[in-house]
Amino acid sequence: MREKNGIYERQPFELFAYHDKKPTLDHSVFHFHNNYEILLYVKGNLEIYIEQSRYLPVPGTMFVISTEEVHKGTILDSEDYERYVIHVSSSVIQPLLGYDVDLLACFHGHEPGKQNAVVLSMEEIVEFCELFSKLKQILDTEPYGKEVLKISCVAQLMTMVNHAFSHTIMPARPVSNLASGIMDYVENHMSEPLSLESIAAALFMDKYYLAHQFKKQTGDSLYHFILMKRIALARRLLGEGLPVTEVCDRSGFNNYNNFIRTFRKYVNMSPGEYRKHQTE
Fold this sequence. Notes:
Largest sheet: 5 strands, antiparallel
CATH superfamily of the largest domain: Regulatory protein AraC
Mean pLDDT: 87
GO molecular function: DNA-binding transcription factor activity; sequence-specific DNA binding
Low-confidence stretches: 1-12
Strand content: 15-25%
InterPro entries: AraC-bd, Homeodomain-like_sf, HTH-like, HTH_AraC, HTH_AraC-typ_CS, Tscrpt_reg_AraC-type_HTH
CATH topology of the largest domain: Jelly Rolls
Strand order of the largest sheet: 3-9-4-7-10
Order of helices and strands: EEEEEEEEEHHEHHEHHHHHHH
Shape: globular
Number of helices: 11
Number of domains: 2
Radius of gyration: 19 Å
Oligomer: single chain
Domain HTH araC/xylS-type: 180-277
Structural class: alpha+beta
Keywords: DNA-binding, Transcription, Transcription regulation
Protein name: Transcriptional regulator, AraC family
């Protein structure tokens, strides 16, 4: 899996899984994924931001992150770090919907950035790792009935994840008041230009102080955070079938050509192609 500009490049797979103990990627900038993400944190010293929530996970913490949630993770030191990660597209889960369990509830049954983490019991950790290994083997080989086995394993895994999230959710730590105020302002003014000067003026702050403190407290620049929020919003609106020109305006891109170019850079397809892919 490759990373480009803080955004994972679109993969040819609808489902993939990996387990790494020494990750080569640095997730220290805000980004999003085109697929749903399930992450089981095993060990290490990690800080995760999901929208306006901050997590310092303990071993055995599971995270679920939707395609609309801007997030970042930072490894805080050189200690051993271990995680299990699964990315799965909605097209894989869609055929499994309509039964007695909503397998997407863990991703959408909460406000963005809220209730994204749960601490698993030892039995749940063992169950998840067994299902992960089973899924990985199916994906990495060509067994008889591969597609059936894959869907069956995904159904088991997503049922297990949703059951885990029906338990007590791990509380998040809010980001600082300053960063939270800035994020709130950005969230409520997405269709506007949102220059550093305009945000600073609205919040009665010096623009240099604002930019420095946001970077210091979140580990990423305000410009990059705004850009990721704009693209995430554009993806959601395109998925709802809105015209590309309307999405351009509503997500705050004041130049159509810039919107097309920027969207393609981070999503690896044009807005029109993405809209068609999501609404077919």
